Each structure stands twice: as C-alpha cells, then as structure tokens.
C-alpha cells in the first residue's frame, strides 16, 4: 500500500492515523458488533460519539458557552442561503466583503432572498490580490450583518485580520464568516463572531458535513418563512438531528478532532506547522524563475497556494510528472488554471519538502 501526497483543495487529505483508526473500527466499533455507519443516530452509542466530537471541537477552539455548535449538511453553499433566512427576521440588508469566487457566490445566494445586498468593500480592483483594509470597509446604515470569507480557497487569498463590523453610526452588527478552508488551521477568537461556518472536506473530515458555530442571541433573528432544516434554533434544539445527520462523517470529524488534540498537541502546534509549510513553499516559488504567485505578501493563504508557470505550455507536463512522482491534485481550479497546492492540516511537512524538491528538479530540467 502506498499513500501518495495529496494536495487537493477538497475533498482533501485526511490524517493517515485517522484513517487507520477508522479502518480498525470499521466492522466492529469498539466491541459493539457493528459499524458506526450502521448505528441509529438516536442510539446511545452514536449520541456519545456526536457529543464527544462537539466537546473536543469546543476544547480545540475554546468556544465560549454562549455559542451553539451545529453539525449539519448541504455543504457550505447551503449556508449561503441559510444565513439570510436566519439573520434577516428584523429586516436590514446583508453586507459583504467581496474578495473572490466564494464570497461572490455567497453574495449571489443572499440576493435571491434579500433582493438587495451591500458590498462594504471589494478587492475586485486589485484582481483579488489583497484584501480590503479595515479603513476601506464601509457598512450600510441598514446593515443586518457583515459576511466575509476568511480564506478564498481558489484565489489563495487570506485575511490577515478579523474585520470589525460597525455601521456608520457605530453600532455593531454580527460578523459572519465562511471559514471552510481555514477553520482549525490555527487558534481563533470565536467571541469576535456571530456565525462561523465551514464545510468539512478540508480541515474537518470527509464531505457531507458542515460545522456551524452560532452565538445564542442570534437564534431569534430568523424569518418566519424559513425552511425547517435551515434553522439554527431548530437544529440546535434537536442536537443537529431534526432528520438523519451525516453520521459517518460526523464520527470521522470526531476522530480528526481527537488527532488534533492528542497527536498534534492542539491548534497552536498546528498553526506553527502550517506556517512553516507555507513559508517553505512560498520561498521556493519566490526564489525561482519558473514559478510565480500573485498575492500580496500579507494576504497569502497558508492553506491554498496557487502558482503559475512562466510558460503555461509546461503545465500539462508538470502535472503529469508530479503525479508520476506521487504528488497528486496540483491542478489549479478550472476557473483560474495554473497550479494550486493545498496545505491543509493533514498534509505533512514531508509532502511540502517533496513538492519543493520536485519543483526545483522540474525547473532545472524544463525551465
Ligand atoms: N466556501 C469556501 C471558502 C470553499 O472553499 C468552498 C468549497 N471549496 C465552499 C464555500 C463551498 O463548499 P461546499 O462545496 O461544501 O458547498
């Protein structure tokens, strides 16, 4: 058996230790005589798995008691629609920071329901190569909340600060953040946010699960016409089990949380590893004549590193040779082309070293 190095943007690499544990528990979960995926979601055994996962996530992120944690479905994309339903009960307009493809999709989805949204700042003018600074963010007088994307997975553009969400008159509105590709990459001050959400398939676990962390006072801001399954209050009161949850993904997420706590040693340790990985790869890109990354230094993503080759005719060869060398899924998103190396938590430092060595060798031979 060989496990290659996987740089996929999502579904992404899983920690090998987690997969081994899942394998060992696959047929007979800890002497219960059945697989986790065969358990009733309402049975004692699965409920214990679910509760443990939540407790570990709370511990990792130091989530304050006045926040609820939901394990729901529909991808991060469904949250694009669920958010305005949950937060626009008292009217007002959603406000957005537009920094790339994912925030644009969130804006489009909110428009369906809200009709009008306000873009409080955009990085369109610089080609999404630098995020707006705090002083450039201007909310509307009727802002209901401010939404932003902490890390644009496709563009490789990451916020280097947590924005403040204040209307021009100084009143604060909830800050809502899509953290699909950055949650759990390092420590986070959850108390700054009204809602945090993330699709699982990067740093949390397999696809099919979405984690939502929502401040309790926001559970009563929903519109009356909200579909039941979108509702944060209803989900929270049902322990995220209004209907059948994605039980196996939830269990695997729990194993990932346990791995982060026990094997890695928590999010500060994870953060240090992630920073080292990204710094090594960006240094290799910047030091070469063949590769380039367009993002301004302070906003370079630690998780997703896009790069182009000086001669795009070499792209195919680069990818083929990389794959032959056991370096998988380096192709950039179809909308932007080039390459992208995603360096999520489960991508080891050895993978980054192997990639850097391959890139240097390729440049020597073909550049
Ligand atoms: N937001 C971000 C930042 C993403 O990276 C993605 C998926 N790559 C999404 C939203 C959409 O996630 P999903 O496919 O789970 O709907």
Written overview of the protein:
- Belongs to the class-V pyridoxal-phosphate-dependent aminotransferase family. SerC subfamily.
- Homodimer.
- The modification N6-(pyridoxal phosphate)lysine is found at residue 202.
- Keywords: Amino-acid biosynthesis, Aminotransferase, Cytoplasm, Pyridoxal phosphate, Pyridoxine biosynthesis, Serine biosynthesis, Transferase.
- The chain folds into two domains: 17-262, Aspartate Aminotransferase, domain 2; 266-366, Aspartate Aminotransferase, domain 1, CATH 3.90.1150.
- With 367 residues, the protein is an alpha/beta fold.
- It has helices at residues 16-25, 44-61, 75-87, 101-114, 232-237, 247-264, 267-286, 315-324, 349-366; strands at residues 5-6, 67-72, 93-98, 118-122, 143-149, 151-152, 157-158, 175-178, 195-199, 210-215, 291-292, 304-309, 327-328, 339-342.
- It has nine helices and 14 strands.
- The relative contact order is 0.17.
- The protein is globular, with a radius of gyration of 21 Å.
- The model has no long low-confidence stretch (mean pLDDT 97).
- The chain has a seven-stranded mixed sheet with strand order 2-10-9-8-5-3-4. The protein has a three-stranded antiparallel sheet with strand order 11-12-14, covered by helices on one side. The protein has a two-stranded parallel ribbon with strand order 1-13.
- 35% of the residues lie in helices and 16% in strands.
- Helix 1 crosses helix 6 (247-264), helix 2 (44-61) packs across helix 6 (247-264) and helix 7 packs parallel to helix 9.
- The chain starts with a strand and ends with a helix.
- Bound molecules: 4'-deoxy-4'-aminopyridoxal-5'-phosphate.
- The site of 4'-deoxy-4'-aminopyridoxal-5'-phosphate (PMP) has 11 residues, from helix 3.
